[in-house]
């Protein structure tokens, strides 16, 4: 051990004192160095997206896209570009839990051979507002209320819904966040989106519009609200732990990258404005073309140095990627650099996690914590004195040049009417959901409105947003909140919006869809790699059944955890010793995707154990597949799980033995959840 000056330290555990019981000496420079370093350990947390986790990996191009863009990652088939990706929640502080209802950040730093490109997106394809100047208001509204700093990481409070009720452009995004999309099961189960319409530019200067999509190989899967709340208490680090552990065991996180390309000539072909980030381009109108994949395969060595200090900027682009006039994107171009200067300082780009792979050469100098030792007397351009010094490169084809978009307009502070269709896509989203998804969405909005203390707030949400989105939505929320829709309409204050007439060529209602099946999560994903199955066991568990479950499920990449009433080992019916992965008190049901209860002596005891019965009932309530084998079947009745009526749809509760039980678990895990169960009477 040494000091920061390289001095060998003889004793790091005792400070220097005037006698063994005397006062500490000011002279003790080792004590002071250690404590001062500690005092300065924190940097300001991100004002939004403070809670996050990241990983390293690579992006691999499936094809050569040079006809569309000169962006380096797409220049040849099979080319690999290193990446660092950080996932985050938006509203909570750095120490908040992983599973609140919230938007998730999905920020990817590509270390390309033409410089750093940051694609700073979210896990939802649209945003709440469509002018950057409203962002501080949105965030002040959603963050804990300033007089009491309550609630942490939650939109379920007055100020958020007050703001929302007066900003009808939030409608579409509200639908996404209040649906189960706002509760991702894990990072690996989230989609990612560039959100804004970006530009792809080819080597000849041709340009087209693009939307970026990350499609998770493991499928899109979510928790349910009760589960997410419990997870926040039982394992606040649930998602970052899940990512860390899966990478450590070699189960890497993977996404396909897709693009939706719209040629310039089609800019006005849609019934919405491509520059309005509260709209998405339905995949049924412009298919998503899969062009590459991202694999996250290496955990950071140090959270602070990498995940906390990584500095994403929307302005970090490479030749081939350019901006559009989306007013949110334009505002973000300013915000991200500004925030990194505040958070990390002027030399943030020199930190290992932020450095480009290619050499940096310019006349930017000095500032706090400068790392580079610039040599020579010349720090300006042009110069004949310096010999070899940085030259700009007017001739270089691979140098960055802004797309020469024609700009012509009056200075004006207003919103185009092409941005003011607030409800069509919100309605499309609602129409696209399965019945259970609609039910969860209605319950979520009702939950949040019921949390509001000021009665006028939910009324304004009903009158200004919900009734305009869908009558079924409005009626469902009215029923659960006790709101009277007609009264809401009478008393609600009207939103304030500044609009100007859109130019003639603006959207005219041509290309649109009423329903976009791509938006529903009611899908089956093939494969169960990385899914976690709780096996409730104990002394005398049926060894054959446990063995059959384990070998069949582990062969498919699933993770089995044996849970018993204590840690250490148990002995199965075959006399073999079985390792207990978690004692029951350390094993909440919410961290598992499915439950299996093998037979044997252990099952008799479990059927009389409150913790085990609660575990099973809770997993049932959250829609998870359950398998009961042999004596384990006793738990079905003891946990009061309703037995489905004959002919009812498949409920994902199986009583049987391997291999049928294993097959049922696999089918259930691929389906993810059974949301058509009758859960009202289940006490959990
Ligand atoms: Fe951000 N956003 N944002 N944002 N954002 C930040 O930058 C901002 C927006 C997003 O893992 C901040 O480094 C403004 C949309 C992600 O480090 C800050 C506006 C989208 C992350 C900032 C938006 C995002 C941030 C805070 C309205 C989806 C985390 C810390 C114009 C496309 C990146 C930081 C990470 C972070 C500003 C809206 C995504 C203050 C002004 C839309 C994923 O610069």
Fold blueprint:
Elements (H helix, E strand, L loop, with lengths): L28 H11 L12 E10 L18 E10 L14 E9 L2 E8 L12 H8 L15 H8 L5 H8 L13 E2 L4 E4 L5 E10 L8 H10 L3 H11 L4 E11 L25 E10 L4 H6 L12 E2 L4 H17 L71 E2 L7 H8 L3 H17 L4 H14 L1 H11 L3 H7 L7 E2 L31 E5 L6 H13 L3 E6 L4 E3 L5 E3 L2 E2 L10 E4 L3 H6 L3 H12 L4 E3 L5 H5 L14 E3 L4 H12 L13
Parallel strand pairs: 11-12, 13-14, 13-18, 14-17, 18-19, 19-20
Antiparallel strand pairs: 1-2, 1-9, 2-3, 3-4, 5-7, 6-7, 6-10, 7-8, 8-9, 15-16
Bound molecules: CIS-heme D hydroxychlorin gamma-spirolactone 17R, 18S (HDE).
Can you give keywords for this protein?
alpha/beta, globular, iron, Rossmann fold, six-stranded parallel sheet, ten-stranded antiparallel sheet, peroxidase, 684 residues, Catalase HpII,  Chain A, domain 1, binds CIS-heme D hydroxychlorin gamma-spirolactone 17R, 18S
Q: Kindly identify the CATH topology of the largest domain.
A: Catalase HpII,  Chain A, domain 1
Radius of gyration: 28 Å
Mean pLDDT: 95
- The helical percent reads 25-40%
- By oligomeric state, this entry counts as single chain
Strand content: 15-25%
Please, how many helices?
Answer: 18
Bound molecules: CIS-heme D hydroxychlorin gamma-spirolactone 17R, 18S
Secondary-structure arrangement, i.e. CATH architecture of the largest domain: Beta Barrel
Task: Outline the structure in words.
- It is a single chain.
- The chain has about 675 residues and is α/β, with parallel strands linked by helices.
- The chain has three domains: about 15-350, Beta Barrel (Catalase HpII,  Chain A, domain 1), CATH 2.40.180.10; about 430-505, no CATH class; about 530-684, Rossmann fold.
- The protein contains 18 helices and 20 strands.
- Helix 17 (about 635-640) links the parallel strand 19 and strand 20.
- Helix 4 (about 170-180) packs parallel to helix 9 (about 425-430).
- The mean pLDDT is about 95.
- Bound molecules: CIS-heme D hydroxychlorin gamma-spirolactone 17R, 18S.
- CIS-heme D hydroxychlorin gamma-spirolactone 17R, 18S (HDE) binds near residues 47, 121, 135, 195 and 335.
């Amino acid at each position: 051990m040494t000091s920061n000056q390289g001095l060998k330290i003889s004793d790091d555990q005792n400070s220097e004192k005037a006698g063994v019981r005397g006062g500490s000496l000011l002279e003790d420079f080792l004590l002071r160095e250690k404590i001062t370093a500690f005092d300065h350990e924190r940097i300001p947390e991100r004002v939004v997206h403070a809670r996050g986790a990241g990983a390293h990996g690579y992006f691999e191009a499936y094809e050569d896209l040079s006809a569309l863009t000169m962006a380096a990652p797409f220049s040849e088939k099979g080319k690999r570009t290193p990446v660092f990706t950080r996932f985050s929640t938006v509203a909570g502080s750095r120490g908040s839990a992983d599973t609140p209802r919230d938007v998730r950040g999905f920020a990817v730093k590509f270390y390309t051979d033409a410089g750093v490109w940051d694609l700073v997106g979210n896990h939802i394809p649209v945003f709440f507002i469509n002018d950057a100047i409203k962002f501080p208001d949105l965030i002040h509204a959603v963050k804990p209320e300033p007089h009491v700093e309550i609630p942490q990481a939650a939109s379920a409070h007055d100020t958020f819904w007050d703001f929302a009720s007066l900003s009808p452009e939030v409608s579409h995004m509200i639908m996404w966040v209040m649906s189960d999309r706002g509760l991702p099961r894990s990072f690996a189960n989230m989609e990612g989106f560039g959100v804004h319409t970006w530009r792809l530019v080819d080597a000849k200067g041709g340009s087209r519009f693009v939307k970026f999509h990350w499609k998770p190989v493991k499928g899109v899967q979510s928790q349910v609200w009760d589960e997410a709340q419990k997870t926040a208490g039982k394992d606040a680090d649930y998602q970052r732990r899940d990512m860390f552990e899966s990478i450590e065991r070699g189960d890497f996180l993977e996404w396909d990258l897709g693009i939706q390309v719209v040629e310039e000539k089609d800019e006005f072909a849609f019934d919405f404005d491509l520059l309005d980030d509260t709209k998405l381009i339905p995949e049924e109108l412009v298919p998503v073309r899969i062009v590459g994949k991202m694999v996250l395969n290496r955990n950071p060595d140090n959270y602070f140095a990498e995940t906390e200090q990584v500095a994403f900027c929307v302005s970090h682009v490479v030749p081939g990627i350019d901006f559009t006039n989306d007013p949110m994107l334009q505002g973000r171009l300013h915000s991200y650099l500004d925030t990194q200067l505040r958070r990390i300082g002027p030399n943030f780009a020199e930190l290992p996690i932020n450095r480009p792979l290619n050499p940096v050469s310019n006349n930017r100098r000095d500032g706090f914590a400068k790392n580079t030792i610039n040599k020579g007397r010349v720090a300006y351009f042009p110069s004949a004195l310096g010999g070899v010094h940085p030259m700009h490169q007017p001739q270089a084809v691979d140098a960055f040049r802004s797309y020469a978009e024609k700009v012509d307009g009056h200075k004006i502070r207003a919103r185009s009417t092409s941005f003011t269709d607030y409800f069509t896509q919100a309605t499309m989203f609602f129409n696209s959901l399965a019945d259970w998804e609609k039910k969860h969405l209605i319950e979520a909005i009702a939950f949040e409105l019921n949390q509001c203390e000021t009665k006028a707030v939910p009324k304004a949400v009903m009158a200004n947003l919900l009734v305009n989105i869908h009558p079924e939505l409005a009626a469902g929320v009215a029923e659960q909140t006790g709101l009277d829709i007609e009264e809401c309409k009478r008393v609600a204050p009207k939103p304030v919006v500044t609009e100007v007439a859109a130019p003639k060529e603006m959207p005219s209602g041509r290309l649109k869809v009423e329903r976009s099946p791509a938006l529903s999560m009611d899908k089956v994903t093939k494969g169960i790699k990385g899914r976690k199955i709780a096996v409730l066991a104990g002394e005398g568990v049926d060894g054959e059944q446990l063995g059959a479950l384990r070998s069949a499920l582990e062969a498919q990449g699933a993770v089995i955890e044996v849970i018993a009433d204590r840690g250490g080992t148990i002995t199965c019916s075959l006399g073999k010793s079985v390792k207990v992965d978690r004692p029951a008190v350390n094993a909440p049901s919410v961290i598992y995707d499915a439950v299996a209860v093998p037979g044997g002596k252990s099952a008799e005891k479990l059927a009389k154990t409150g913790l085990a019965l609660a575990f099973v009932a809770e997993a049932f309530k959250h829609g998870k597949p359950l398998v009961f084998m042999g004596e384990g079947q006793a738990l079905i009745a003891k946990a009061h799980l309703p037995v489905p009526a004959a002919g009812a749809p498949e409920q994902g509760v199986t009583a049987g033995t391997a291999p049928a039980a294993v097959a049922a678990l696999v089918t259930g895990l691929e389906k993810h959840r059974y949301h058509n169960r009758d859960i009202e009477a289940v006490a959990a």
